[in-house]
Amino acid sequence: MNNKKLLSAYLPLAAAAALLGAGASSCASRRATVGVEPAVAVVSPDSLNRAVVDVRLRVPRSVLSRRSRLLLLPQLSDSTGPLWQYDPVAVDGTVYAKKLRRRAALEGASDPYTGRVETATRDGADYLLHYTDTLVLPRGEHHGARLTGHLTVDGCGNCEGEGSVLMAIVNDPVSLIEEKKELRLNWIEPEFVIRPKVREGRGVARLQFVINRYDIRPEMGRNRAELDTMLATLRPIVNDTLAELTSVSIYGMASADGSLAFNTPLARNRARSAARWLQEQLGLTPRQRSVFAIDSRPEGWEPVVKAMTAAGDADSAAVRDVLTRYADANDDVQERHIRRLPCWRRIAERYLQKDRNVEYVYTYRIRSFTTDAELLAMYETRPDAFNEEELLRVSTLKTDPAEKEQVYRTILHYFPQSAVAANNLAVLMLRRGAADEAGQVLASLESYTPEALNTLAATYIYRDDYERAVELLESAADTLPQARYNLGLVRAKQRRLAEAWELLRPYDADLNTAIVALSTGRTAEAAAVMNRRTESAPRDEYVRALVAARRERADELFAHLGHAAADAALARRARIETDFMPYRADARWTALFPEDKNETTTRND
């Protein structure tokens, strides 16, 4: 049956009168009770939000005569009013059915309820109508919603109706689960370990020297600019009160021209001159000067070949051939053979470098802060001097959530792939309901830990994207208990209850495990879980009352329900709870819910 229609979408009942015209019988009220056998159906929605209703209605003969049509209009409603209206059902008396066939044959009249006419069987003086349908429930949670059949005879729309009959009540214990509040998120508390923060840098200065001399002359060539660059590199480190210069190695380059025995000490002396000049300009202490070291590196003939090749000099091939043939020899042997080449004079004039490289490599250590007070004080002014672990330590010392968030943002500014900072920042955002922001933070990670996957899944749950959340949780559930638990909550909300039970039952003292047990008919398991559980919050007491109701233990039920009813939302729910209906006639019920005192306790009122 197609039952997905809105209330306003139905053919007015008065249309039946137009069909019958003058041939319709009068419809004086024939008040009688239409009952449900064997009892009002209790239905639960499935994973597609569908509920199967299968009931029999006992219709007194005084309601449905041979000359009349009974219309049954099923309507779903809750405490807020009508929610949904489903396809009507018509039941025709024998004479009424003959009139319809005659009008169809003689006048071509059509019946607006074609395909919706059911046959009622006689049972003594009454008729039995079998009503069965798979109802698609509106989106949302509708625990306690009632499916009521509204009745009228002949469908004239003007006569007095025959009342209504309660056919089914929606029972959905899973709606007790508050999954967004009860997600298990992984807050990662970092372990603070003091580690040396050593950093390294390097550079090259191209300095000119008087031939065969090693003293520094800033006025020669570009020496001033090259020396200023070295100073600009090292001075911030020397002046930084948080930094300690730990080594500076300066390498002079030995020329390719001339003997290696002469050029090597010359290069070392030039490196030493550069070191001394830097030490004086920087105003270093003796301890700081002690970290300097000097050395030399043979420059060789490779720069000469590169310069000749760049100039398109055809003789570069001859020089390359010498270097290849004497690759295992030192610079002196190579130079001897290059000097024998016819192009030697041109090489000496054009390609021998007039300046020499001075390489420098330096390392420095950023001070480690060993006390919490030092960390917090320095964080306010110099967060750039911290390593990731120190910043994470600062985050643990902050108690205000907003301040924690700011520290984690700072960490991600300097260390964008910090999984701990991204995860914890997202958790804080979720706690204040900012699921979109939390998702953006985690999306910036290049790889995910199981903890981050679990938190990312939570951002989708907060946005009601359960399918995407399931994909992420399934990938982490085998290694992370929190992800397994959250997957169980999602499967429960999707009403895939068998899967939810398998995922949650290891948590044998958990409230949601008990709720899923009740949802799958496992009353004994639910009772065992609640016996192990020590909490006595209103929702815990409500679940204990449900267990007692199913075990027909009235004293236990009212003892627990009395505590649960302190919560206004649970008190409202209790009044429509199908498991509690057999106890509504008990004086203890009206003591808890005085507003129900004058209500009839029958289900067909």
Features:
alpha+beta, Immunoglobulin-like, single chain, 605 residues, disordered C terminus, 4-stranded antiparallel beta sheet, 4 domains, Serine Threonine Protein Phosphatase 5, Tetratricopeptide repeat, 7-stranded mixed beta sheet, 60s Ribosomal Protein L30, Chain: A
Could you describe the 3D structure shown?
By secondary structure, the chain is an alpha+beta fold. The chain has four domains: 7-171, Immunoglobulin-like; 173-186 and 372-495, Serine Threonine Protein Phosphatase 5, Tetratricopeptide repeat (Alpha Horseshoe), CATH 1.25.40; 197-366, OmpA-like domain (60s Ribosomal Protein L30, Chain: A, 2-Layer Sandwich), CATH 3.30.1330.60; 535-605. Helices cover 43% and strands 18% of the residues. It has 25 helices and 15 strands. The chain has helices spanning 15-20, 94-107, 179-182, 223-239, 260-282, 286-289, 302-310, 316-325, 331-339, 344-350, 372-379, 388-397, 401-414, 419-431, 435-443, 450-462, 466-476, 481-493, 497-504, 511-519, 523-532, 538-550, 554-564, 568-574, 587-592; strands spanning 35-37, 41-43, 50-60, 69-78, 81-85, 89-92, 117-118, 121-123, 126-136, 146-153, 163-170, 197-208, 243-254, 292-298, 355-366. Strands 2, 4, 5, 6, 7, 10 and 11 form a seven-stranded mixed β-sheet that branches. Strand 4 (69-78) and strand 5 form a beta hairpin. Helix 7 packs antiparallel against helix 8, helix 21 runs antiparallel to helix 22 and helix 22 packs antiparallel against helix 23. The longest helix is centred in the middle third of the chain and has 23 residues, at 260-282. The two termini are 27 Å apart. The model is unreliable at 1-30, 155-160 and 600-605 (pLDDT under 50).
